[in-house]
Amino acid sequence: MNYQDILKIPTSFPQFSTPFGPIVDGHVIPNQPYKVMGQYTEHFSRYDLLFGVTESESYHTLGALALEEGLRENERDNLLRFYMQTRFDVRPDLALAATLKK
Q1: In this structure, how many other beta carbons lie within 10 angstroms of the beta carbon of residue 53?
Q2: Among 8, 61, 70, 77, which residue carries the largest CB count within 10 Å?
Q3: Integer-rounded Cα radius of gyration of the chain
Q4: pLDDT of residue 96
């Protein structure tokens, strides 16, 4: 099966997650990133900072008013709460509290 056939398969998944995200499989991604970075320091120690830019990332998740004027505080908090619950298996409430504190 080629990748185009795979991408045509209908999927459903929660917001802020991906059905085709990076998965530690032991082959392509051999281990957890922090372990790989510790193991291959000669590759990663050359860089003080790695970052990237994505144009229009997730703009489709916001309505026209939010894109034009920004989110209301309660909308922001609800989106962050849902994001933390989706992305953190352990104590998403602490991640949310720390994020809102900043």
Answers
A1: 5
A2: 77
A3: 18
A4: 93
Can you say whether the dihedral through the CA atoms of 81, 89, 26, 48 is positive or negative?
Answer: positive
Residue 58 in contact with residue 18, Cβ under 8 Å?
Answer: no
Give the type of residue at 20. Answer: F
Longest dimension (CA), the chain: 47
The per-residue DSSP string of 26-95 comes to SSSS-S-HHHHHHHTHHHHTT-S------TTTTGGGS-HHHHHH---HHHHHHHHHHHHHHH-SS-HHHH
So where are the chain's domains? Answer: 22-51, 71-102
- N-term to C-term CA, the chain: 46
Neighbours of 84 (CB within 10 A): 20
**Residue-wise pLDDT tens digits, 10-48:** 888 777 776 666 677 777 778 888 888 888 888 888 887
